[in-house]
């Protein structure tokens, strides 16, 4: 018997993933926390799909000593693309489920994983640029020092302790990649078996 | 006896004579006192103590139990440290009907209450000299309103509050003729001099003060007061002296009568008479100054009328309770039943009963009249007398457990006694001559108890000497046990009189950390560096300036001329807690500014000589603080130096960009 039907629980998962990806458009994706002796309460900055929030204006104020660029949401092309990309991935999840299409599932998984790698690379590139592209006329220049925040985890930057972690949106996006990958493999195996 | 033995004995006698010198000032501190007042680094005090500054016109905010001073809040005095009374925004706060009065003598404080308990919203303060009442907003610890009191002199029995902050009172210490009718011979004291009591209504939502009515009472000296609470809510009690109505050699002539009075005022009844139109409108002049938080600007207006009720004509609003020898403190216990008078020249403390007072009024149990006001029979209203409490009883506060604590000025001690039995339970010496005392929440319906602070007048030998003028002092006692324990003494700023205190959480939860820039409605605000500019309007030059770590914009200005009035409107762009910026310019004849994050403040500067004038930030704000500076070039009057200014000229060292100033 030849069947193109996707497993019922795969469909349920795809719908949940679609909903999750829509949620990730509206919640913070990544968090960066800073701690320093004079900021005992800590400073937080959140990256959303379309903006940055939190105390980034205070961070901007502090960065003038070492000549880092100020963070302004309108300078990032990513913020105009990201919400749509997430929306399209969500729609593809729903299409794969409702149209019973393995093809869409495979395509979605492939593109999504590529997107994920690209996203991480772009984020890293952004952090690198932000931490290395310093104003040569800055008041404080520490020889050999750059201020690139960690991609994930902890780093000490002069008097600041910096943490970087995925927030809800980021969690959903990573989870979605893992689940899509597993689903695609399982469905691929099932489809082979049923031929 | 051999000679050397004789000499030895004589020496011994001499030593023992020396050893016999009385040890009057010995400390009585128990072993664990240090532990009880130690607040470890990083920990907060348990209680906020707001302490009057006396002749300095300010209020100190002190943490208890550590005794550390946290802030000085300027109220009735100019304060060059932050520009209060010097900046264009705050100058109107110190306007009065006598013009700008930049100082006062600040005695008493009252924390706003709801249902008889401290609610953490406002603090009220009196000015004794030029009668005024101020309100301090406790979200910002800033003075936001000052109301002058007409028909008064020496606003001493003030600011005492009713249990729901309906009214704050202001009773005159000096009997005076009504405002505008003061050109009379002193001999006419008895006919012309009156004691005016002002009832200042407090807006429920905005806390705004407004003299709802005054009561014209006989020409006594009103000293202190307290509102009834619980069952006695609706009544106010004022101690008064000089019932002799003497007007010369007061100390002798005003202390002749065996008894002066406590005046009980039925303010609910007075309100009814006011509504019924029994008040006469009196033409007066008094200033009402308000600080608007959104524009960060104070304004002063002169009000012209006040409603006055006559105690003589309206027989049932005032009653006199005889009280021995120059009553001073007049304190109501937490239940509202007991009224404690303190005859400061008496050797006992009379305790009156509110229930008995009501019965006596009902039965018209009067012993006579004073200037038309009924005098109640002493015995009919007396609950009891505390016998031999000490010398010179002044003030009484309560712990909510049925105990009262009275300060003794002459015998320098605090005496604890039982309100019901009027028996003395404990006494502790103070160092020295204690005036006011305060139990945390001790004048409310629910005292927090635990701590008592005595505010002393004399501090010989307590601290390192500082010339003829020594620090004033406060002493902290633990009153949680049966015996009072001295824990700490600490110097205070100014001469403390009354104080108020409440648990820290009541005040910390509402603190403003910075002013939001987007909410700043100051007419001369500059919300970003791009908006900064210099505008000439005739001989006035307005500088729209910003400050942020670590520069001013503009940082250099040319084209100011001798004779110009320059207004620096400085907006602190920071949006972070505890990052104020200062602003000062060479030769400024008023003060500097200290501008809070998100705030705009204005310094007026009139340069008198041509030259180059540096301006700079006075509050070390960042590693680049010393770079936060600039220059103003002043040219002679009539010269044609163009008005230009520069912004952020980091790269080419002030060559460009240079902008043209506007001329209107």
UniProtKB/TrEMBL annotation, chain A:
Keywords: Membrane, Transmembrane, Transmembrane helix. The chain crosses the membrane at residues 12-33, 81-99, 106-127, 168-186. This is Copper chaperone NosL. It comes from Kaistella carnis. The lineage of its organism: Bacteria, Pseudomonadati, Bacteroidota, Flavobacteriia, Flavobacteriales.
From TrEMBL, chain B:
Residues 645-664 are annotated as: Disordered. Residues 645-658 have a biased composition (Polar residues). It is found in: Cell envelope. Keywords: Copper, Metal-binding, Oxidoreductase. Its EC number is 1.7.2.4. It comes from the Bacteria. This is Sec-dependent nitrous-oxide reductase. One of its GO terms (molecular function) is copper ion binding. GO terms for cellular component: cell envelope. Signal peptide: none annotated. InterPro entries: Copper_CuA, Cupredoxin, N2O_reductase_N, N2OR_C, Nitrous_oxide_Rdtase_Sec-dep, Nos_propeller, NosZ/Cyto_c_oxidase_sub2, WD40/YVTN_repeat-like_dom_sf.
